[in-house]
Amino acid sequence: MTHVPTSPGPEAQQVPSGAAETISMPTPTAWPVVLAFGLTLLAAGLVTTLMVSVFGALLAVCGAVGWFREVLPVESHEPVPVRAETIEIKTSRREVERIAVVPELTHPKLPLEIYPIRAGVLGGLVGGVAMAAVAMVYGLIRHGSAWYPVNLLGAVVYSQPGQLSPAFLANFSVMLFAVALLIHLAVSLLVGLLYGTILPILPRRPILLGGVIAPLLWSGIVHGVLGIINPLLDQRISWPWFLASQIAFGLLAGGVVILHPRVRLRQVSPLVVRAGIEGTGLPVRRPDEDEKR
């Protein structure tokens, strides 16, 4: 008769009273950090000054020597006390949670509702018109020309946009209008499609997300990178008016998107279910079994 070994119980995992109460572990060391910092300064000196590279080289040598002395010829160890600990696995659930499945399908699916693509496209177009209208009103009030904000946006094609005079920006330019229209249309459509995707996250207050939260986040991002993308626009932009145009875009684009009925999609079940780590608890029939019946 073959003896089948059994797994040790919790009492077998504890340290016996006669066993050693310490184990030997590698000694902690900070020399690898010193070596890494020295190599970083050594590389940073290539674009700064020679003294930074010299200081980095000294740190790197000290870090390497200190690290090697702790591992060569014999690795340094230190005793670490051992404390027996019994781990209790507890759960607050009274029932096993089942994953919702569709009976007529072989693999479990998770339904998800999103807005159709046409809703995002239409919302982006309507919101883009509203944003452009607010910008042109700003141009008329502050600079006496509705083409001023349009030319500021299109000036990204110039290598030195700061040399453009206010009189030039106040006049209509076919090239600047075409560039501004292309940029504005692409951004509006992209944000409109994003609205169609993210608005279902807050189904109870979609206008709050699309009309207030998203414009504030977007304005903060633009404020940080506009000086690199379009220096001229960064120098002459009016941020209160820019924020107003973003809110107008968010309110109208979000309102148009949520008017469309949502599309019911079926997403594939999570990876843990597909990999067999977790099961749904439902038996899966094979096609040959159905034929036999």
Task: Report what the structure shows.
Mean pLDDT is 76; it is low at 1-18. Among the domains are: 23-81, Orthogonal Bundle (Helix Hairpins); 116-261, no CATH class. The protein starts with 21 loop residues before the first strand and ends with a helix. Helix 3 (117-143) crosses helix 6 and helix 3 packs antiparallel against helix 9. The chain has helices spanning 31-44, 50-71, 117-143, 148-154, 166-170, 174-198, 206-229, 231-236, 239-258, 271-274, 287-292; strands at residues 22-26, 77-81, 109-114, 263-268. With 293 residues, it is mostly helical. The strands form 2 sheets. It has a two-stranded antiparallel sheet. It has a two-stranded antiparallel ribbon with strand order 3-4. It is built from 11 helices and 4 strands.
Key traits:
about 290 residues; Helix Hairpins; two-stranded antiparallel sheet; 11 helices; about 10% strand; disordered N terminus
Average pLDDT level: 76
Sheet-strand content, in percent, reads: 5-15%
Topology order in helix (H) and strand (E) letters: EHHEEHHHHHHHEHH
Rounded Rg: 33 Å
Number of contiguous helices: 11
Low-confidence stretches: 1-18
Based on DSSP secondary structure assignment, what is the total number of beta strands? Answer: 4
In spatial order, strands of the major sheet run 1-2
Specify the biggest β-sheet: 2 strands, antiparallel
How far is it from the N-terminal to the C-terminal residue, by CA?
41 Å
Class by alpha and beta content:
mainly alpha
User: Which descriptor suits the 3D outline?
Assistant: flat
As a percent range, the share of helical residues equals 40-55%
